Automatic annotation (TrEMBL):
Database matches in InterPro entries: Wnt (IPR005817), Wnt16 (IPR013304), Wnt_C (IPR043158), Wnt_CS (IPR018161)
Entry's Gene Ontology BP terms: bone remodeling; canonical Wnt signaling pathway; cardiac epithelial to mesenchymal transition; cell fate commitment; keratinocyte differentiation; keratinocyte proliferation; negative regulation of apoptotic signaling pathway; neuron differentiation
Presence of keyword Cell membrane: no
The family this protein is said to belong to: Belongs to the Wnt family.
Name of this protein: Protein Wnt
Chief place of localization: secreted
């Protein structure tokens, strides 16, 4: 379904023209007015994934030479150069797979819930449960328009969770269970990070009474939360019995929480290009020579070293308004060292 984020005006294409599975196409035909919101959810997820990983070896992109059509849950994704989508990672069962599923499920919740609050979807609006009541003793009451995350959660599950014929066998069942868990972990992240905003009322701003409502956090905050979960993700067994369990036998008594991100397989080597898997490698990536973090030349270039070249920037500067009536500027030139991985 992420493929629809690459189309400019999806509603004009029609549901049958989009890379959706049968269940998703049925929902699309019944509720075509949801397409712009679904597209925005896909865009949010893709954009946040690239933002969170932009300085790391895996940067949420794949090799533009890869043109393989991959059929995976939640839908068929076509790896075309025009589309910043994920190729191999959607079916690899790695930590990166876990993050992709979580952040895109969260993106759909966030987009739908925002559309509800803005009055763009007739089936939902503000949260009706938070229209009255509060605490008179503490001087506040519910009011305004609280984000109704319940409809967003429901639609995200309806659109993304469900049976798929593309992943089969025992190993496939583990991947399906993993993906469904990570979808829900992404949705729960949006719910967990909701906050309460209030507005004061009273004489001369005394704040004798406050009107409060619930609102979602920015999606950047949701992305950061999920990135932290990615860093602490849990590897699970590739054999699915009664329930998902940790891979390490010594850790199986430690419970798996609903908010944890789960993966089955260890990540591949993202340092070196692998066209078969759609891994671009890090050669040519811009790195920070002075950083000790993942964007530093030592880590990002995987010990291969880096090239340095000088880039010249020319821009207008020291602009002044001359009476009357034009602006006079100087032409400033700066030279910057840019480092790229060998």
């Amino acid at each position: 379904w992420l493929g629809i984020a690459s189309f400019g005006v999806p509603e004009k294409l029609g549901c049958t023209s989009l890379s959706l599975n049968g269940r998703q196409k049925d929902l699309c035909k019944k509720k075509p007015y949801l397409l712009p919101t679904i597209r925005e959810g896909a865009r949010l997820g893709i954009q946040e994934c690239q933002s969170q990983f932009k300085h790391e070896r895996w940067n949420c992109l794949f090799s533009p030479e890869t043109t393989t059509s991959l059929s995976t849950n939640p839908s068929a994704i076509t790896g075309e150069p025009r589309s910043p989508i994920f190729g191999y990672e959607l079916s690899s069962g790695t930590k990166e797979t876990a993050f992709i599923y979580a952040v895109t499920a969260a993106g759909l919740v966030h987009s739908v819930t925002q559309s509800c609050s803005a009055g763009n979807i007739t089936e939902c609006s503000c949260d009706p449960k938070l229209q009255s009541g509060g605490s008179a003793s503490e001087g506040w009451h519910w009011g305004g328009c609280s984000d109704d995350i319940h409809y967003g959660m429901w639609l995200s599950r309806k659109f993304l969770d469900g049976p798929t014929g593309n992943i089969t066998g025992k190993a496939g069942r583990v991947l399906i269970a993993m993906n469904l868990h990570n979808n829900e972990a992404g949705r729960l992240a949006v719910a967990k990070l909701m906050s309460v905003d209030c507005r004061c009322h009273g004489v001369s701003g005394s704040c004798a009474l406050k009107t409060c409502w619930k609102t979602m956090s920015s999606f950047t905050k949701v992305g950061s939360f999920l990135k932290e979960k990615y860093e602490n993700s849990v590897q699970i067994s590739d054999k699915l019995k009664k329930k998902i369990r940790r891979k390490e036998k010594s850790q199986r008594k430690i419970p798996i929480h609903k908010e944890d991100l789960l993966y089955v397989h260890k990540s591949p080597n993202y340092c070196v290009e692998d066209r078969k898997l759609g891994i671009p490698g890090t050669q040519g990536r811009v790195c920070n020579r002075t950083s000790e973090g993942p964007d530093g030349c030592n880590l990002l270039c995987c010990g291969r070293g880096y090239n340095t070249h000088v880039v010249r920037h020319v821009e207008r500067c020291e602009c002044k308004f001359i009476w009357c009536c034009y602006v006079r500027c100087r032409r400033c030139e700066t030279m910057t060292d840019v480092h790229t991985c060998k």
